[in-house]
TrEMBL record:
<keyword id="KW-0436">Ligase</keyword>
<dbReference type="InterPro" id="IPR000120">
    <property type="entry name" value="Amidase"/>
</dbReference>
<feature type="active site" description="Charge relay system">
    <location>
        <position position="52"/>
    </location>
</feature>
<keyword id="KW-0648">Protein biosynthesis</keyword>
<protein>
    <recommendedName>
        <fullName>Glutamyl-tRNA(Gln) amidotransferase subunit A</fullName>
        <ecNumber>6.3.5.7</ecNumber>
    </recommendedName>
</protein>
<dbReference type="InterPro" id="IPR036928">
    <property type="entry name" value="AS_sf"/>
</dbReference>
<dbReference type="InterPro" id="IPR004412">
    <property type="entry name" value="GatA"/>
</dbReference>
<comment type="similarity">
    <text>Belongs to the amidase family. GatA subfamily.</text>
</comment>
<feature type="active site" description="Acyl-ester intermediate">
    <location>
        <position position="151"/>
    </location>
</feature>
<keyword id="KW-0547">Nucleotide-binding</keyword>
<keyword id="KW-0067">ATP-binding</keyword>
<dbReference type="InterPro" id="IPR020556">
    <property type="entry name" value="Amidase_CS"/>
</dbReference>
<feature type="domain" description="Amidase">
    <location>
        <begin position="1"/>
        <end position="438"/>
    </location>
</feature>
<dbReference type="InterPro" id="IPR023631">
    <property type="entry name" value="Amidase_dom"/>
</dbReference>
<feature type="active site" description="Charge relay system">
    <location>
        <position position="127"/>
    </location>
</feature>
<comment type="function">
    <text>Allows the formation of correctly charged Gln-tRNA(Gln) through the transamidation of misacylated Glu-tRNA(Gln) in organisms which lack glutaminyl-tRNA synthetase. The reaction takes place in the presence of glutamine and ATP through an activated gamma-phospho-Glu-tRNA(Gln).</text>
</comment>
<comment type="subunit">
    <text>Heterotrimer of A, B and C subunits.</text>
</comment>
Length: 446
């Protein structure tokens, strides 16, 4: 824990991954834990971890990257934070993110722009940019992120680390500041696959505080790291190697498939025909859910409150006008529009129907194949400022990750080569609740 704080002190002035540190409390916890007999210590015991700032931590400021939550000190821990403690991990600070997890570069944070440790002129990806950058910089060995449309996998890919978006329902969302409740999942970001498997095991499981958490067994993911992938059947969607995906990203996937073939797996081209509607479907549904979820930030209950107002209505309006950033306002407006009486059938309902088609695409491929493999992102990390002026180019970055959230299936990004001196990611997608097979394949590269 002390070493993590030293490293943060040395590097975070440049990387800017952390929003808050709780050094005093963490050092005290570490000291107390020294008393625990070695025989009672699990594999993660005593290790420091960083937590994305949309996951609530008792007594430690939680802003979700937004000005509207400035000064909000939660009175309870998220279920995952409690589970981290039970596994012996020490939460040492909160990690920067795009405001309310809306973005792909961490440039939408109200506080600071996190930099990619491989090249400080580039973005770390987003929205869990702080989570990925802190692990890549070696400030912490592990972090937690959240993924609604790619926010764990895309930054993991940009920063050359391992990031898992678990099956929807695998990990409790209790204490996760909601963006789009039907898509959000918390997951681990680590330097290798084994750590990732250990950490997911620690945070998984049904939770009485989250009715969407699933009552399914949590297997020992580490036990699946056998190195044996003989007979594994891989589907490679032609849409994931089509136009719009960079040559380097395509080549790195083809190279990875050769490695898997040499280990006894086979692969074939498959199709996810509705994935071309993924982006449109995602932005309608996620913005609709966000417009509802973000209604609670009214200046009364949490964090920031506008001053010099004349009436209650004025207080709401001014707090939200001053407290939310541009991207968040854009989504609230889009979502409110899509849910309004005149537009509901044409947009929201239609998007829900297309979501079902996208899910069925995955179901069909998984009838014949064990995993689906493709790139995580079309290109490596872009430059700070390069895409921030144009929301549509920014959104297009997530075309390969979004369908996975819409279908609710798990997906991981692992490092897979370089382009322009920057890391590229390989995405491995599995069946519902079959993270074990994903880890088995991912580990085969290590
Ligand atoms: N970049 C996508 C968005 O802006 C995904 C974000 C996420 O997964 N939280 O919505």
């Amino acid at each position: 824990t002390a070493e993590a704080y030293n490293r943060i002190e040395a590097l975070d002035g440049d990387v800017k991954a952390f929003l808050a540190l709780n050094k005093e409390q963490a050092m005290k916890q570490a000291e107390e834990m020294d008393q625990v007999p070695v025989s009672e210590r699990g594999p993660l015991f005593g290790l420091p971890i960083g937590v994305k700032d949309n996951i609530v931590t008792e007594g430690l400021e939680t802003t979700s990257g937004s000005k509207i939550l400035q000064g909000f000190n939660p009175i309870y821990d998220a279920t995952v934070v409690r589970k981290l403690r039970e596994a012996g991990l020490i939460t040492i600070g909160k990690l920067n993110m795009d405001e309310f997890a809306m973005g792909s570069s961490t440039e939408n944070s109200a506080y600071k722009i996190t930099r990619n440790p491989w090249d400080l002129d580039r973005v770390p990806g987003g929205s869990s940019g702080g989570s990925a950058a802190s692990v890549a910089a070696g400030e912490v060995p592990f972090s937690l992120g959240s993924d609604t449309g790619g926010s764990i996998r895309q930054p993991a890919s940009f920063c050359g680390v391992v990031g898992m978006k678990p099956t929807y329902g695998r990990v409790s969302r209790f204490g996760l500041v909601a963006f789009a409740s039907s898509l959000d999942q918390i997951g681990p970001i680590t330097r290798n696959v084994r750590d990732n498997a250990l950490l997911l095991e620690a945070i998984s499981g049904v939770d009485e505080h989250d009715t969407t958490s699933a009552n399914v067994d949590v297997p020992s993911f580490v036990e699946s790291l056998t190195g044996d992938i003989k007979g594994l059947r891989i589907g490679v969607p032609k849409e994931y190697l089509g136009d719009g995906v960079g040559a380097a990203a395509k080549q790195s996937v083809l190279d990875a498939l050769k490695v898997l073939e040499s280990l006894g797996a086979t692969w074939e081209e498959v199709s996810l025909p509705h994935s071309k509607y993924g982006l449109a479907t995602y932005y309608l549904l996620s913005s609709s859910e966000a417009s509802s979820n973000l209604a609670r930030f009214d200046g009364i209950r949490y964090g920031f409150r506008a001053e010099n107002v004349e009436s209650l209505m004025d207080l709401y309006k001014e707090t939200r006008a001053q407290g939310f950033g541009d991207e968040v306002k854009r989504r609230i407006m889009l979502g409110t529009f899509a849910l309004s009486a005149g537009s509901y059938d044409a947009y929201y309902k239609k998007a829900q129907q297309v979501r079902t088609l996208i899910k069925q695409d995955f179901d069909q491929v998984f009838e014949k194949y064990d995993v689906i493999i493709g790139p995580t992102t079309p290109t490596p990390a872009f430059k700070v400022g390069e895409k921030n002026e144009d929301p549509l180019t920014m959104y297009a970055n997530d075309i390969l990750t979004i369908p996975v959230n819409l279908a609710g299936v798990p997906g991981i990004s692992i490092p897979c080569g370089f382009s322009e001196g920057m890391p590229l990611g390989l995405q491995i997608i599995g069946k519902h609740f079959d993270e074990a097979t994903i880890y088995r394949v991912a580990h085969a590269f290590e």
